[in-house]
Amino acid sequence: MLAKVLGGGVEEGEDGGVVAETGGDGPIIPASFKGSKGASFIVLVSTSIQFNTQIYFSKMSSKESCRNELRTAIRQLSDRCLYSASKWAAEQLVGIEQDPAKFTPSNTRFQRGSSSIRRRFRTNEITLTPPTGVAYVSTAVMEEDEAIHGDFYLLAKSYFDCREYRRAAHVLRDQTGKKSSILMPMLCVVFKLSYVSVLYITKAGEKRKEEEMIELEGPLGKSDAVNRELVSLERELLTLSKNNMIDPFGLYLYGLVLKEKGNENLARKVLVESVNSYPWNWSAWSELQSLCTTVDILNSLNLSNHWMKEFFLASVYQELRMHNESLSKYENLQGTFTFSNYIQAQIGKVRYSLREFDQVEVIFEDLLRNDPYRVEDMDTYSNVLYTKEYFSALSYLAHRVIMTDKYRPESCCIIGNYYSLKGLHERSVVYFRRALKLNKKYLSAWTLMGHEYVEMKNTPAAVDAYRRAVDINPRDYRAWYGLGQAYEMIGMPHYALHYFQKSVFFQPIDSRLWIAMAQCYESEQLHMLEEAIKCYKRAANCNDTEAIALHRLAELHRELDHPEEAAFYYKKDLERMEAEEREGPNTVEALTFLATHYKTQKKFEEAEVYCTRLLDYTGPERETAKSLLRVMRIAQSGFPSMDVEHFHP
């Protein structure tokens, strides 16, 4: 029997025994292993795997070199049950642009040269192989058409291993290769048995849930459970490492154990050694990324020069909120991986962080056309649709992911966003909870559930959800912002201010965060208006789409008796409203103040312009404008005012 140790739990079979999980990237080790010296430890040692490190000078292009490396890596990763890493590598493999002269009708479907998104982001090809010409693996060169069919088979097989059966079938639907014909009947059997499988998984999951609920603590199921196998596992791996009997996959496992135990410095060192020895394991890169929490830590890593390093840096820059650097890396990578869905999705996520929602919408629509059964990253797309209040589009997306795979955290998150947009907050919370049952470290679900509790005025539950989010990722500005909102609701502005400051530290380009902090400074308890003005200025420089900052700057300067500054911001706010072709109470307020201000400054021509505009409105502002015009005309004519105070008794 086998069990996945690092997953924090095991699966039970029908006979009560332990079976191995088939999904995810956790390495497989014997269930009977409890760390004893006599146990048979089969975790990927160097005696069982031979790596070809032959140095050769390749005459192939960098694209062909990448293909051969990825083909070998996919099989090696799949053999070690690193299915997510294998899938990632397969997606990059079919994302490399083929020679148009060698295309056949069945393998051009994924080469989407007509896409406007592809043309928009296309750049020059980058040099991906190390300058020394070192190859980490060597592979036999297949016939071109056979190789291309084989690439799509590898992608479909990786989807199959990750239980994404519809995506696998979509990849193979036009393929005529021998291997494709082997996998298609298996997919047919899977679809026929899918209902029974889901029913069994559901019942087994309910049983496990009832057992776990007894041990859970807190309103949101917070638990301090730990993996008791880590101590013995670390001891065995340390021994293998000291004796130089551990391969790159064993180092990856060792890095995971060290990370779980909190030894981050050593975990980084071990993971760097793993990716330098075997750079195609994206799971190892991902774990290393989670340990790079600052730029200084990133710069301290001694990484070999390999094209996989570019993917890693782009991802780390994205996590460190270095959006422009990340975008530049991904666009350069598209020079070689022209049709990579992964890169396109990451570009969409970076632009989402930059709040370029129109471009993000176009990118994800194009992505869904090319990969219609894709679920991963679609939660970001749902956030865009939620922000733009596109009810029908979000409803369609929710229906689509339900039909594809409703037992995915991303699917539950999308459905939760849909119900939230409809104002059904209790039902939305149900789906965010379901997402967390499937993946308790799913960051978006914790944050979005906190937002729902804020809407429901359940402040304690909101605070609990946000704290769980920042425990998972201390750089999540949305959770810090949510904590600030929650504490502001219960009348604790000093705590709220602290959390708002944390949020703007991690996302200084978001005007909403600066506005929230400014409003906190304006509260009765703090009443720090000068600090509020500084925050509103930052918001105005960050593309304040809600048009709050300029108006509040004008009002605060007027309140502080700074008429020149107030006039400056009222004028800018008025210009913005004119550009956006909108009017309202703010327009009347700005016109009235400017007319009065310029009349006081004896700039009668400018004052008359604003008074004339006020005459177009009905109400007291019209009478005010008439009065101002009458006074200015009298002043300009040189006659004294006929007011009573001008006459001597």
Quick recap:
By secondary structure, this protein is mainly alpha-helical. The protein is built from 30 helices and four strands.
Main β-sheet, in a few words?
A: 2 strands, antiparallel
Oligomer: single chain
SS content category? mainly alpha
| Count of helical regions | 30
Q: What spatial order of strands do you see in the largest sheet? A: 1-4
User: What coarse outline follows from CA principal-axis ratios?
Assistant: elongated
- State which percent range the strand residues make up: under 5%
In which range does the helix fraction lie? 55-70%
Q: Give the CA-CA distance, first to last residue.
A: 112 Å
Mean pLDDT: 77
Round the Cα radius of gyration to an integer and report it. Answer: 31 Å
Low-confidence stretches: 1-61, 105-145, 184-220, 642-649
Number-wise, the strands total 4
